Q: What sequence folds into this?
């Protein structure tokens, strides 16, 4: 039986997921190593529909640094990653910024926000 090991990126705990092919389940896969149910969904999606939590930087005016590190609050489908990164490159925010402030709400209508990864 094939097994694939992936790190769950849904939360900072970062469980090591072991994903097995299993034709007798509806998804065709079984996930082990997850500490919660979100890991199962993430693990199966990584195999069937790869996606990523994205990190990047946007231009910051009037802040303590020139570029503000940002990250998405959820996974971005792989086919949308380039589009999201292009948006990061065009966005400017004005400080002061608190960690967790929303920088882009509902990016590309994906139901995922882009937030500040640090104070600046
Ligand atoms: S499986 Fe659950 S607890 Fe583990 S990293 Fe994923 S979301 Fe976090």
A:
């Amino acid at each position: 039986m094939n097994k694939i090991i992936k790190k769950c990126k849904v939360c900072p705990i970062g469980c090591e997921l072991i994903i097995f092919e299993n034709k007798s389940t509806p998804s065709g896969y079984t996930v082990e190593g997850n500490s919660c149910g979100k890991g199962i969904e993430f693990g199966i999606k990584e195999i069937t529909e790869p996606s990523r939590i994205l990190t990047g930087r946007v231009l910051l005016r009037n802040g303590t640094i020139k570029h503000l590190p940002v990250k998405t609050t959820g996974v971005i489908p792989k086919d949308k990653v380039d589009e999201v990164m292009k948006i990061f490159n065009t966005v400017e925010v004005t400080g002061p910024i608190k960690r967790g402030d929303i920088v882009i709400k509902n990016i590309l209508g994906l139901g995922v926000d882009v937030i500040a990864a640090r104070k600046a």
In short: The chain has two helices and ten strands. The two ends are 49 Å apart (CA to CA). The chain has two domains: 3-49, 55-116.
